[in-house]
TrEMBL record:
Lineage of the organism: Bacteria, Pseudomonadati, Pseudomonadota, Gammaproteobacteria, Aeromonadales
InterPro entries linked: DgcN-like (IPR011669), DgcN-like_C (IPR035086), DgcN-like_N (IPR035402), P-loop_NTPase (IPR027417)
Species: Tolumonas auensis (strain DSM 9187 / NBRC 110442 / TA 4)
Source organism superkingdom: Bacteria
D-glutamate N-acetyltransferase-like C-terminal domain segment(s): 131-327
D-glutamate N-acetyltransferase-like N-terminal domain sequence ranges: 44-125
Designated name of the protein: EBNA-1 nuclear protein
């Protein structure tokens, strides 16, 4: 799916800043995509963008209203319908990463059909994908993998793409989750693809390209997480990654949502590399990305120095330090 830019970010009635994390991510990584934000009276989040109503956003050039808030249960609130309807009538498309589909709201579907507008339910792919063939394809690919889910794989991928582009390298972030799709404007929500076609979907997402072009593919889950190891495996095989980056959150003792211990970093890299070499025998790790948000600066620097000495790979926090040392390895 290709979502038209620029965006009006809809924060709705978000009760805090975390509830607006999708909008925050879009504004952080691509502020040039955003003309402003729409906040209802009950909203307690702010992206530091101009507050606009629908008419003002349309006048500013907005082409898509993006639902940038994730409420409990991922539903499209009845309170939002009149605003979403107004956006359609003003000539905007709608995009959402919620579980509840825009196309399942009768009044929105009927109005969009009548006016020729598009409804993007980015969590729900509409494309059909082939079974992966594993054939070598031109171009370079990098894939972040993790010791756990939600430990920084998307942030790492976006930070690597940013560093590459600033150096004048050819690079494209390839989103595999709904937030990444809304940040970049394109991609496939892999968690909604039928399991037989996950690797094939990644082959389509990151196709053959120029020999010096890097596709930076957003990783998902972890090979050691009992809930998500399957989707991780499919992404690894479809990516045919030339370069892998391990992502890690060092303060966790168990994986998110399950009573499984966080795996040793060396063991994690060994299994990911073995999986990657099935479709690219030349795959290698080029660095370790550590989310040190819960550590002091002193603690973070000491920890990363220890990890780097132990594994012999550039070890950085992409937020504190950027990704230049890892991109140097490419």
């Amino acid at each position: 799916m290709e979502i038209q830019k620029p965006y009006l970010l809809f924060l709705g009635d978000a009760h805090d800043i975390l509830a607006a994390k999708v909008a925050i991510g879009i504004k952080q990584w691509h502020p040039e995509y955003c003309v402003g934000q729409y906040r209802m009276e009950e909203c307690h989040a702010d992206c530091d963008l101009p507050d606009m109503d629908i008419a003002a956003a349309k006048a500013a050039g907005a082409k898509t209203l993006v639902i940038g808030v994730a409420n409990r249960g991922g539903i499209i609130s009845d309170k939002w319908i009149s605003i979403l309807t107004e956006a359609l009538e003003a000539g905007m498309d709608l995009a959402s990463g919620l579980h509840n589909r825009l196309t399942d709201v009768p009044e929105l579907k009927a109005l969009a059909d009548k006016l020729g507008r598009k409804l993007f339910d980015v969590r729900h792919p509409t494309q059909t994908f082939p079974v992966a063939n594993g054939k070598k394809r031109e171009g370079k690919r990098l894939l972040p993998v993790g010791t756990d889910c939600s430990c920084g794989k998307m942030y790492t991928a976006l930070a690597i793409e940013k560093e590459m582009l600033e150096r004048g390298m050819k690079a494209t972030f390839r989103a595999t989750g709904q937030t990444g799709i809304l940040i970049s404007g394109a991609g496939v929500s892999i968690d909604a693809v039928v399991s037989d076609f996950v690797a094939g979907a990644v082959e389509v997402l990151a196709p053959a390209n120029d020999a010096d072009h890097w596709d930076v593919i957003e990783g998902q889950g972890s090979l050691f997480h009992p809930s998500f190891a399957g989707v991780t495996t499919g992404i690894i095989h479809g990516a045919q990654a030339d370069a892998l980056v391990l992502c890690h959150e060092p303060t966790r003792t168990t994986m998110r949502g399950v009573d499984y211990p966080i795996v040793d970093l060396g063991e994690c890299m060994a299994l990911n590399l073995a999986m990657a070499k099935l479709t690219n025998p030349k795959a290698r790790f080029v660095g370790i990305s550590v989310n040190t948000a819960k550590l002091s600066e002193k603690e973070a620097i000491a920890l990363m120095a220890d990890i780097e000495e132990k594994y012999g790979l550039p070890t950085v926090d992409p937020f504190r330090q950027g990704m230049s040392r890892i991109v140097d390895q490419l």
